[in-house]
Amino acid sequence: MIQISVVVPVFNEEESLPELTQWISRVMKENGFSYEVIFINDGSTDKSWDVISKLSHEFNVIKGINFTRNYGKSAGLDAGFKKASGQVVITMDADLQDSPDEIPGLYKMIMEDGFDVVSGWKKERHDPIGKTIPSRFFNGVTRWISGIQLHDFNCGLKAYRLKVVKNIHIYGEMHRYIPLLAKWNGFGKIGEKVVQHQARKYGYSKFGLERFLNGFLDLISVSFVHRYKKKPMHFFGLLGMISFLTGFIITIWLIFEKIYGLNQGIPVREIVDQPLFFLALVALIIGVQLFVTGFIAELMTSNQAKEIEYKIDEELNLNS
Questions:
Q1: How far apart are CA 92 and CA 319, in angstroms?
Q2: Of the candidates 117, 120, 215, 118, the residue with the CA atom closest to the CA atom of residue 167
């Protein structure tokens, strides 16, 4: 088994790929690591795949996966994880902002210090304030909700023990929450390492501010799925019970009020003329619907496997 697999999602980074490959190669040789580099071309519209193909002929450690179109970073990492075979799996971005010089330190923290996951922390960032301020807010909220004390969930430079990446499946935009997914799958020793953050040398950032909004929505989604995917009735049933009981209590009160008023000779409105009656009716109906939703979800939990959400056009130096 080789020591390190480097998984690199690529989207329109043709200029940086040769330099990144040389940089990784130098670091690996200096430290005597056996390694592989897996580039996942995520539907690039430039010549990134041609560059990867050329590099795979120059370096036998370079492997490639070419998607038929752009599926996103999570799909790229998931495909790379499936093909990785190193004891330690390192992920990094292809834009040269993540430094391969950090690889030995990350490797040591996994193999010698016993961490399952080590996340990079770009303590000093070379990004505009329009990205750094929202990023700090996002990371603070994520720490609070997840309970994982990492400063930079968005950092692409991370290290994983091989068994971690083989036991998680990421999809959608869940790449930000791989440490959280690892923790929920029993790999709770999660560390952090301050890493260098390089100024962008080529091209431009592929991520806008919308990623933070998507990130919060994904955090809610992944938290819900983790807590209730095995017991959806606990969620829908509880809400259904609250709604149904609320409607039932209001209905009983209206009936009691009507009977009491008639017995005491107090004039009261017809039950169907009162707004509370319609609120009670809606609450009863919603309660029943939530119960039914919970039952259906329970029936569906036996078939939870996600279908592969990306199509591979071509592979280089990889066994199918």
A1: 23
A2: 117
Nearest to 308 by CA among 169, 168, 181: 169
CA dist., res. 127 & res. 100, Å (int): 19
Tell me if the pTM is above 0.85: no
Residue that the structure tokens 């991370």 belong to: 158
Give ∠ CA 42-46-51 in degrees, rounded to 5. Answer: 80
| pLDDT tens digit sequence for 165-214 | 999 888 777 788 888 889 888 898 999 999 987 766 665 555 555 655 66
220 contacts: CB under 8 Å, gap ≥ 6: none
Tokens for 86? 């190193």
The whole-angstrom separation of Cα 135 and Cα 74 is 19
Distance CA 317, CA 41 (A): 14
DSSP characters over the chain = --SEEEEEEESS-TTTHHHHHHHHHHHHHHHT--EEEEEEE-S-SSSHHHHHHHHHHH-TTEEEEEESS---HHHHHHHHHHH--SSEEEE--SSS-B-GGGHHHHHHHHHTS--SEEEEE-SS--S-HHHHHHHHHHHHHHHHHH----S-TT-S-EEEEHHHHTT----TTGGGGHHHHHHHTT---EEEEE--BPPP-SS--S--THHHHHHHHHHHHHHHHHHHSS-HHHHHHHHHHHHHHHHHHHHHHHHHHHHHHHHHT-----GGGSHHHHHHHHHHHHHHHHHHHHHHHHHHGGG-PPPP---EEEEES---
Phi and psi based region of residue 186 (left: phi greater than 0; alpha: psi -120 to 50; beta: remaining): left
CB-based contact 184:229 (threshold 8 Å): no
